[in-house]
Amino acid sequence: MKGFFDMLTMIEVLKAILFGVVEGITEWLPISSTGHMILLDEFVKLNVSKEFLDLFLVVIQLGAILAVVVIYWNKLIPLSTKHGLHISRRKCKMWVKIIVASIPAGVVGILWDDVFTKYFYNYQTVAIMLILVGVVFIIIERSNKNKIAKIDSIDDISYGQAFLIGVFQMIAAIFPGTSRSGSTIVGSLMLGISRTAAAEFTFFLAVPAMFGGSAIKILKYNGGFNSAEVALLAIGMIVAFVLSIIAIKFLMSYIKKHDFKVFGWYRIILGIAVIGYFLAAR
């Protein structure tokens, strides 16, 4: 135990908690969790290897995805025992749509994840994508003002539309700062899907995306995990889980009365601040 606490100091625990807080809050809001995590790493350095840090920033998302599973358990699980064991065809169709939408990002992640991580996971890309997607959010919301959504339920999303939403998710997989939730929500709004249905489909689409992304990182990880690294992952995931529940409930309540423009402005301001900070630091 003494060796364990020598490796895992209180300051490292606090850093892991901070990363968990940022992940839990930003994963579900369309402001880019990966972008925020990369930026946080510029200021708060975990005392771990570069390889483990790359894994940590992805696998910590499992805590966030478990929050979706807990909150939406009844909508996600196709098996029901309410009136005897049976399988919901509606939920099975929903999962087929989720799988279809997962294909573009899945292919990109498997084939070129290391390449994109090497060339795009930096503050320049994050800042640019924060601003660009923020502008797109504002433009789309202004063009959609007073328009009635054509699709109010995930059940009404076609397989073709699901694939197109997956293409938007693929863009986020390539360029950090885009925001996986932000890009899929933008794509959904462009297709005439309501904000509530767009947000829920984004949450559900995250389940295979995050589990798959975490599995790829773990399988590619060459180093063995020591007890301190396992503890840091566990702390980050637990904190992300708790904060994600709060963030999801907040977002679903917020969009019932408001649009996404505030997130667009936040992204633009943050992106400009990031560029300004790093230019001044040179």
TrEMBL record:
Its main location: membrane. GO terms for cellular component: plasma membrane. Its EC number is 3.6.1.27. The chain crosses the membrane at residues 12-32, 52-73, 94-113, 119-140, 161-178, 198-219, 231-252, 264-281. It comes from the Bacteria. The keyword Repeat does not apply. It comes from Eubacterium ramulus ATCC 29099. It is a multi-pass membrane protein. Bacitracin is thought to be involved in the inhibition of peptidoglycan synthesis by sequestering undecaprenyl diphosphate, thereby reducing the pool of lipid carrier available. Catalyzes the dephosphorylation of undecaprenyl diphosphate (UPP). Confers resistance to bacitracin. It catalyses: di-trans,octa-cis-undecaprenyl diphosphate + H2O = di-trans,octa-cis-undecaprenyl phosphate + phosphate + H(+). The keyword Transmembrane helix applies. The lineage of its organism: Bacteria, Bacillati, Bacillota, Clostridia, Eubacteriales. It is found in: Cell membrane. InterPro entries: UppP. It is an enzyme of class 3 (hydrolase). This is Undecaprenyl-diphosphatase. GO terms for molecular function: undecaprenyl-diphosphatase activity.
